[in-house]
Design brief:
- Chain B: Belongs to the YciI family.
- The complex is a heterodimer of chains A (414) and B (117).
- Chain A has 19 helices and two strands.
- By secondary structure, chain A is mostly helical.
- The longest helix of chain A has 24 residues.
- The termini of chain A are far apart.
- The chains are: A mainly alpha (414), B alpha+beta (117).
- The interface between A and B is small, with 9 and 10 residues.
């Protein structure tokens, strides 16, 4: 095994284990990208990498950590994949392609980062939309199906099936592991950004997995923005997620959700907010406004409360007008109504809510929460109570349920 | 990697076509086949008789059963196919988009399960 570049000295098991864990964390997506690209086999790559990590746990305490740990893992995993392939074919292996491994220590052009190719294949239009975000979390970041299922409030069996199906489709159809060019790249990039946004937004706010997945979604957006600084919406997404994530510690108080206007700004991550502002400026300078940039600008207005002590509702209202014009999602329409309520009074907000015409409203939690809040402000206690009940029935996350229940209880006492 | 484009459409849509319409249709497909050949990716193609003329057969316990009619009655039926040789699904999608059938029916893309050996 000398050709694997193992260091000379044995090292304590705990140190070897820590190094394995560190390499796994830092390099997971890159290694899965390198291993899965040749045959389009993400599931095989994940299995082989997990075996290679096991082998490292056994080997590294005795041999020392190799000079090039990533290269070591890739070679061991490749051997496992070749063995598995041979077993599957029950004949001699196909000649292994001899292209050099892009391993650590050799700086690559950002476009060559295997994680980018992996992101693009995970967001391929040939994969069900609901599977794209979870697939990225698994293939690029190494979360298990069970962890992802918990974060997305799905059953582990259903999530596992969704992921297996997506990987099978990628392999069987030879979906390309590369960052596409030209119009295809522009179009596909929207799928990639939507999926990363979905990773952040859809993840249930409760639990350690959700927290970690939101952090990783911020990381993926940052990776994309670093590699594609010429795309204003990629920069906008990165800014948006950074703004949202900067408020993570202020969102909960003793297990109860704290709405944005009530959050203590000293709990916000000010370094992350500064990074978000910088990204947003960078995006604006490109002069091509878009949905994520407007959403990030909205968050920037909220973040300004740190300096000004208040929230500029007029600026928010103008931004939401712009947002519903280019991306009239239900969430944007409901938020616009809430801002009008804050700016012009509860009746104006309720009128704006009544203007939304969409069959999905009956099951859209933010609509009922906003409606309950505005009705309570307008003094319509009975109706507000009913709206809170509907909002609570549609809420999965315990902190948000606790918040709504206490708002409803306060209404009863008044 | 070989991909097969299965061309599905509703045959009632062809009911009112005149001789000239058919001639134009043949020209359109001829041009598509020409483009596939020029790109060096053409493997094979066929245009099939209407589904009502299908003969469906199965053999169980050494006995062959023959039915006059298609395997399944559907509104959109398989009217033809192309087999092409392309590097990946994106290339297959790009060529399927140009297939005339995409404009009036549906093109199902299926990758080969036989590998490239």
């Amino acid at each position: 095994m000398a050709d694997l570049g193992a260091g000379p000295a044995a090292i304590p098991r705990a140190i070897a284990e820590a190094r394995v864990a560190q390499v796994a964390r830092a390099s997971y997506g890159r290694l899965v990208g390198i291993l899965s690209a040749p045959a389009g086999d993400i599931a095989g790559a994940e299995d082989a990498l997990s075996e290679a990590l096991q082998a490292a746990l056994v080997t590294w305490p005795g041999s020392g950590v190799p000079d090039n740990p990533e290269g070591w893992l890739v070679r061991v995993a490749r051997n496992r994949m070749t063995d598995a392939h041979r077993r599957a074919l029950k004949r001699d292996p196909l000649p292994v392609e001899a292209h050099a491994l892009p391993v650590s220590g050799t700086p690559q052009a950002p476009q060559d980062d295997p994680r980018l190719a992996l992101l693009f294949v995970c967001a391929h239009p040939g994969i069900a939309e609901a599977a794209r975000g979870p697939l990225m979390l698994q293939a690029v970041l190494g979360f298990t199906a069970a962890e992802i299922a918990r974060a997305f409030v799905a059953s582990p069996a259903a999530m596992s099936k969704l992921l297996v199906r997506a990987k099978t489709r990628i392999k069987a159809n030879a979906m390309p592991f590369r960052v596409p060019e030209g119009a295809l790249r522009t179009e596909r990039l929207r799928d990639v950004t939507e999926a990363i946004y979905g990773c952040y937004a859809l993840v249930w706010r409760e639990g350690p997995e959700a927290d970690e997945m939101q952090r990783e979604a911020v990381f993926l957006a940052d990776l994309l923005a670093t590699d594609m600084p010429d795309d204003s919406e990629v920069l906008g997404l990165s800014a948006l997620l950074a703004f949202l994530h900067a408020r993570r510690s202020a969102r909960l108080d003793a297990g109860r959700y704290v709405p944005l206007p009530d959050q203590r700004t000293e709990l916000w991550d000010h370094a992350l907010i500064a990074a978000a502002e910088a990204r947003l400026r960078q995006a604006f300078e490109l002069g091509r406004p878009g949905r994520f940039q407007i959403e990030a600008a909205i968050q920037s207005v909220h973040a300004a409360r740190v300096r000004t002590g208040k929230t500029d509702q007029t600026a928010l209202a103008a931004l939401y007008e712009g947002l519903v014009r280019i991306a009239p999602t239900l969430g944007a329409q409901v938020s616009r109504a809430a801002v009008l309520g804050a700016l012009q009074g509860a009746q104006a907000g309720l009128a704006a809510l009544d203007m939304i015409d969409d069959a999905r409203l009956a099951r859209f939690q933010p609509y009922w929460a906003a409606r309950a809040h505005l009705l309570a402000q307008a003094g319509a206690v009975t109706e507000a109570r009913e709206a809170y009940a509907r909002a609570i029935a549609l809420t999965h996350a315990p902190p948000e349920r606790a918040f709504l229940a206490s708002a409803r209880a306060a209404l009863m006492q008044s | 990697m070989k991909y097969t484009f299965l061309l599905y459409s509703d045959p009632t849509g062809f009911a009112g076509l005149t001789e000239e319409d058919w001639a134009r249709e043949k020209e359109v497909y001829g041009a598509y086949i020409g483009a596939l050949k020029a790109a060096g990716i053409f493997v094979s193609t066929d245009w099939l008789q209407p589904v009502a003329t299908a003969t469906t057969l199965s053999t169980r316990d050494g006995k062959t059963r023959i039915e006059d009619g298609p395997f399944a009655e559907t509104v959109e039926t398989l009217g033809g196919y192309f087999v092409v040789d392309l590097p990946d699904l994106d290339a297959a999608i790009a060529w399927a988009e140009k297939c005339p059938a995409a404009q009036y029916g549906k093109v199902e893309i299926r990758a080969t399960a036989m590998g490239d050996g």
